[in-house]
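Researcher: Structure for this, please.
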Amino acid sequence: MDKRKTTSHSSWKYILETVLLSTIVTFALLISKNTISWKELDIGSEEGIVSKALAWYQNNMKYDMLVIDIVWILLCAFFWKVKKQIRSETVTRKWIYIVTSIILAIFMIIGDSFKSNGDLSFVYYSKFYALVSMAVYAGYALLIYYFMFIIGAGLEKYRSKEQSLKCDRRRLQLYMFGGLILAWLPYIIAYFPGSVTTDAMNQINQALGQYPFSNHHPVVSSLFMGMFIRLGRIFSNDYLGIFLMLLFEVVFTGFVFTKLIIYIHDISKKNTATAIMYVYLALYPTWGMMVQSVLKDTMFTAIFVAYFIYYTKLIMNPEEFWGNKWNIVWSTISMLAVCFWRNNGIYVVLISALLLLCEKMLRKRWIGIIVQLVFVCIVYFVAVKLIYPACGILPGSSREMLSIPFQQTARYVREYSDEVTESEKKSISGVLEYDTIAEKYNPDISDYVKKTFNEKASDEDISSYFKTWLSMFAKHPVVYFEATLNNTYNYYYFNDPTNFMLEYQNYTKYDMNRSLNIDENTVFCDGFKKSMLRWTDIVKDIPILNLLNRCGLYTWIIIIVTAFLWRKKEYKKILVSAPLYLSILVCIASPVNGLQRYAWVIMLGSLLYMALSLSPEVEEIDNE
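Model: Predicted structure, token format:
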């Protein structure tokens, strides 16, 4: 009898937990995150808190009861199934997912608040909203926590199955390469001869002598663009020069993507997963639009992928890597190319190389790692610090490193201009145009504020500015955090389909042209171009598929894969993610919120990192 009571009690407890979890998560998913005051609700001031809360709920619930009921029932079924699997987990293994869910839920709250309100008011608007945001946060954290167990269980089953390629390897690579080019061909035709973006037009103007040469845009990539334009001019045709540049980008990117897919299969041993990733690279519009875009990020993305493949090979198979001299040669070339093709590449390469020394097996090869890194640093810094100045090439503006503090200052001035003292105004004016930064401030883009930077500002002016910056932070720290989060949240939040995240580089900036003999009235394949645009718009609106176009999703993938590998104690594989996490930090420090081209390397790198989580478990000794 006692046993029956105990069993009945446990069953009721299990049911109540499932109902409670489903209710909290349903509330978190479906409630509007827009802040609204009691005065805006159509209720009398004499009403009690319960009546006000009910009125608020009716106003803020975005869906009707049918949708709410369907979501609640589905969540009940989900939690009922998952809770049974979790019972067998140890406390230590659960904590890894708990920590990860806490972090990702914070990202969701930040993103929801800024997407809906442009600030963190969903969290601090009032005591009532503090409670609401806590409930929403709990709902997100719980859903993510249980969802991660489903992912982990699926990976456990799938990774144990090995599949081999049953065809000629070289022929397969040739077919894959041809398939990619064929899939991208409609974009190449539609946007013939290629879309020359603002940055690319500036670089071409520099390479052809119309602008002073500057390392604001990396010199090597500018010379690369200029080389193809000059090649086209042999035949007196700038359209040919643009197309030759595009053709080189397409062939090189297709070659690197093919190597990426083959290596993904080599480490994962999964035919189905490899095929899905290949179809994604071939058919998803992001990559077709990328290869027809003439800008430094297209080539940089392919170069970074090549570098990341060699970085992964070095970690996973160090003896095999060092035993082949061509691995050393090509990895060194890829490291140099990453450094020279984008100015922040040196930080990714340098820190990632130093982190290799954390792995025991790699410490045995520390001399080789240090020699390679020192060689890359010497070549890079000799070129940038000695050769460029000797050739009259101007350094990049220091304003490029100051996006974060400049945005913080501009937002502070916009929000608290009446509290800015004359002394603070003077300090800010020595570096930025104080009278215009509040008006020019754009929460998503720091370029407008950075353009007011005084290039002639002395070290003393900069020092005075940062003293003021610190004193203003002490007075209103929240506005600084809001400025930074507002300028970055789309790199770690994926529920905001903003224009920046959905931007395709499908334009030529004729207004920036100072050197090319091209005419904006000359239109190639205009009807086909419109058809391709309609296709990309369709993909953007398809549920699930539209998420693949958002930068934040790939940050989540990298974090979740890290949690899974941490749980499996496969620390060597986690080390592979170093360049990806560093690239995420680079994006966060960038001037634009959620600009997809900045995150291309993260999107592609996450595919290889996912493949590592699918690879059969290997024994790791003393790596902790």
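Researcher: Any notable elements?
Model: The chain has a mean pLDDT of 85. The first helix runs from residue 2 to 30.
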